Amino acid sequence: LAHGAGGKASAALVSSVFVEAFHNPELEVLGDGAVLPLPSGESLAFSTDSFVVKPLRFPGGSIGHLAVHGTVNDLSMMGAQPSWISAAFVIEEGFPVDELRRIAADMAEAAEAAGVRVVTGDTKVVSTGAADGLFITTAGVGLIPAGRRLSAELVRPGDQVLLSGTIGDHGMAVMLARGDLAIEADIRSDTAAVNGLVETLLAAAPSTRWLRDPTRGGVGTVCNELAQDTQLGVVLDERRLPVLPEVQAACDLLGIDPIYVANEGKFVAVVAPEETEAALAALREHPLGRAAAVIGEITEQPAGTVALRTGLGGSRIVDMLVGDPLPRIC
Amino acid sequence: MTPEDFRELTRTRIRVEGIVQGVGFRPFVHSLATELGLTGFVGNDAYGVFAEVEGKRNAVRAFLDGLRTRAPALAVVETVTAEEITPVGSRDFTIVASQAAAVRDTLISADTATCADCLAELFDPADRRYRYPFINCTNCGPRFTIVTGIPYDRSATTMAAFPMCAQCAEEYRNPADRRFHAQPVCCPDCGPSLTLVRTSNGRWVEGDPVRRTVRLLAEGRIVAVKGLGGYHLAVDAASEAAVAALRARKHREDKPFALMCPDLDTVRALCELGPIEEATLTSRRRPIVLLARRPDAQVAPSVAPGNRFLGVMLPYTPLHHLLAHEFGRPFVLTSGNVSDEPIAYTDDDARARLAGIADAFLMSNRDIHMRTDDSVVRVVRGREVPIRRSRGYVPEPISLPWEFPRPVLACGAELKNVFCLAKGRRVFVSHHIGDLENYETLRSFTSGIEHFRRLFDVHPRVVAHDLHPEYLSTKYALELDGVDLVGVQHHHAHIASCLADNREAGPVIGVAFDGLGYGTDGTLWGGEILVTELTGFRRVGHLAPVRMPGGAAAIREPWRMAAAYALAAYGEEIPDLAVARRHLDQWDSVLTIAASGVSAPVTTSAGRLFDAVAALVGIRDAVNYEGQAAVELEQRVDPGERGAYPCWVEPDPLLIHGIDLVRAALDDLDSGVDVGRIAARFHNGLAQAVVAAVEVVRQATALDTVALSGGVFQNVVLLDRLVDLLEARGFRVLTHSRVPPNDGGISLGQAAVAGALDRTQ
Ligand SMILES: [Fe+3]
Ligand SMILES: [Mg+2]
Ligand SMILES: [Zn+2]
Ligand SMILES: [Zn+2]
Fold first, then answer.
1. Of B527, B532, B579, which is closest to residue B706 (Cα–Cα)?
2. CATH assignment at residue A90
3. Which of A240, B301, B396, B742 is deepest in the core (most CB within 10 A)?
4. How many domains does the structure of chain B reveal?
5. A117 at the B interface (CB within 8 A)?
């Protein structure tokens, strides 16, 4: 298996193995989680995620923060108000208890800040070599208020694409924290729970059509998912993509396109054109949304494709990555 | 008629295939038959030309000879089949009506430069087409760029919008006329016309559009000129201010601009011109020819900064002739686009995209259907080597000595994309499409494939593609349904392309040197020695691998390759290097990236070795166009220098240790040796190393034919040295002359491989 990098290969893995095996009406692995309607008119949102980051601790956070934020954000992207989460730990024999304690404290801190409670869990210790330090799996549930609907089906040409903040911070922070590059840069992961920011957005722009957090594979990958699900074009403007200068510099040094770098604490939103201004203003009021920007537009053409308008006026295709990006220039 | 005569009488049914429609073939057959006293008929159908001739046996024989030897200029007679039948006693020779049929197998000729007859009329004040910018006849004019469908007929061209006047219609119908069935025939009364529009206010400029355009050029203005395959940008080549303004507005830093010269004498004043170059310049294809520039050439420095060559072409449309004639000296004629985008070819697109560049637009109301760039060729060792095969060449098929059992589509590479369709023994190699990452270009790739499928009635059953998973051409192929897919490794395709170019099947010792391509082991290849035949290859040797710190960034910034090679050559003890001092803030980080392998893929690319040396000796640290560092390194070569750096060629596994060349170059640099001599010794050393490697393969395989392909072999110094050395050692050397050695030739190789594999099924 070489499916770690996200993008097309992991999408193929998911649909060929798991959709095949678990086929049922509620299964929505291609989204962020399942939506289970309740008699009250509300729906229950249910999502799960595993966390295998290396190193476990990096500037701006740890695997503990990620484990909470990841699941909270997945629920938020479904329009849910997350309430409870579970946590399961796979621990390699010999893993320092102090470190485990710190990570648990990080989780508690993250849960507190997000307004969710960790209500159940499980622990397994496996022999040395059977796991790489620590893996955490979280699951979460939340309620989607009656009448709230977010779906690619609602997206129309002319809708605007918003991004809640700068891109690439998390991926670059983790990459540099691995330490084998000896690159000095003050880059912190942006890991955060965005449920509050999402509520702010939905209050200001009830027309919001679609939300997705650009984690693995970055903004480039989620925009491709959007383009494929809607069979519409997503035209992004390169000059409007918010990237911190230090992140851009690290990306340049490594030859990495920040559009494919992971984020934890950002989302992409599609909003009706008439509510775009209000949405942007509301996001920028919020501490997590100060760098929010309109980054593009939904268009009729190129159907099913993401195009990036470059500074010179051309349009570069931003495709789903199949695997690790390798240069294509002959 | 006496019985004697009757016995001598014979009738033959004839079929002619090739490019025989829309080129004056039937009138030619008519006059040939009449001249020989033969009776019968001639006509067109979906396969080409059919005829029956009746008369004396020796006259019929002369007729069959004449079909080939006296055919019109634009005709390409591929096959003539003749079958004797019973005489019917016909009395005259007629041209019969065209026959439609279900199967189509006719060929469309390429766009062709204005012929001498039309040129004479163009400048004859007494002619009714005097100074008419759209004059043409069966021997010349637009073809591929205006064809919208087949059969080739005026209604299936963008000339459909212009009904012929009575006089034109008369010429069109008269078998004795030079314009008999010339589909784009027209005149000032019935054909397209020019308008000159000022960008600032969008208004038409009064007066003669050509003369007003020439006046604007003389004033140093930039004019967008609608040509055959798209819009060009024209500017006075002698005005540095004007050319520099064009560079700034086009966002094109260094890549040379092409020039159009009014005549050969003007070319000779700028460049060294040999007989082959002259023949190529004046050929009906009229490509841009790369010529060695004279030291005293009167050309603005910004035309081709730091380049020893100029790309020159002669006028090929009546409009160009008028402009060049009135202007009287060279002008820049470069593609109408911003940076690396595809050239604008519709009026709306041109207005939208070129408004920020051009001061005025010289437009016409004849539409261009197929965007087609100018072709570019270089003459090497007395042979034309295509660099870009497009206008004037396309869509004439490349015929091969083997049959394709099933129709093939080959999707080409990512940059400089060219696709092809193959059927029977013919390969229809497309025009230059461009870099697929650009959305507009990707669209012209998919619509171009559709257009070719319809034009040549090819419905591919087999689709060949590159192995690079991120090439958009690969992704296109993988999404097709109901076809057999054949993945062809990039460098296998390069060598196969060279084989097909030479109508050979191998096995040969292939030397594939380029920027890079995806290898079967998932690393990036590009300095490969491959024992190759069409059906397969064995990687027997290659350049020793290095890292590319920052992946694609290492391609844009050759100084990173300098760092990677320095690390490979010296390890921890890298000496003090000028290139390191120029990049102090990033040098150590880039070394760490190279050492760690994170975001630093492994490559055996020859192009990257050139990049490293170019940066190490201070020629270029960052490129503005593909291959720039290598091009400039080649340009710096001191031609008199025969010294060569030693380079270890490890026999088993066969590895060329490029770090030896790097160390030697740095030693010379340290001792103050002139960069021109360093560049020469590097080229010579690499050529010797390749020969040594090829010699190792000959010992093991007894093969003694070598095929050279890949973009690096656009480097004439390396190619020339290598061919000399190989031939001196008794090798037979195959090089390109029909398709480019760069990725523009890849699709022909892919098709040849797919066809060969299909034959073994
Ligand atoms: Fe190549
Ligand atoms: Mg999830
Ligand atoms: Zn003519
Ligand atoms: Zn007319």
1. B532
2. 3.30.1330.10
3. B742
4. 5
5. no
Smallest CA–CA separation between B383 and chain A, in Å?
A: 25
Tokens (6 digits) for B340? 């690396």
Instruction: Quote the ipTM score.
Output: 0.88
Could you tell me if B453 and B459 are in contact, meaning their C-beta atoms sit under 8 angstroms apart? yes
- Is the domain of A159 the same as that of A138? no
- Average pLDDT of the segment spanning A179-201: 90
3-state secondary structure at position A308: strand
The DSSP secondary structure of B259-319, one letter per residue, reads EE-SSHHHHHHHB---HHHHHHHHSTT--EEEEEBPTT----GGGSTT-SEEEEE---SHH
CB distance B470–A254 less than 8 Å?
no
Instruction: Enter the pTM of the model.
Output: 0.91
User: Are B516 and B545 in contact, with CB atoms under 8 Å apart?
Assistant: no
pLDDT tens digit string along B137-189? Answer: 988 999 999 999 877 788 889 999 999 999 999 999 887 788 988 889 999 99
- A16-30 pLDDT, tens digit per residue, is 788 778 877 777 655
Which of A254, A256, A328 shows the shortest C-beta gap to B468?
A: A328
Residue A293 located in a structural domain? yes
- Residues from chain A that touch B554, judged by Cβ atoms under 8 A, are 255, 327
Q: Is the dihedral of CA B356, B361, B367, B371 positive or negative?
A: negative
Average pLDDT value for chain A: 90
Residues A189, A61 share a domain: no
Q: Which domain holds residue A51?
A: 31-144
The pLDDT tens digits of the residues spanning B391-424 come to 999 999 999 999 999 999 999 999 999 999 999 9
Letter for the amino acid at B724? D
Cα–Cα distance list, B590 to A22, B562, B604, B621, B660 (Å): 47, 10, 19, 14, 21
Say if the Cβ atoms of B414 and A256 lie within 8 Å: no
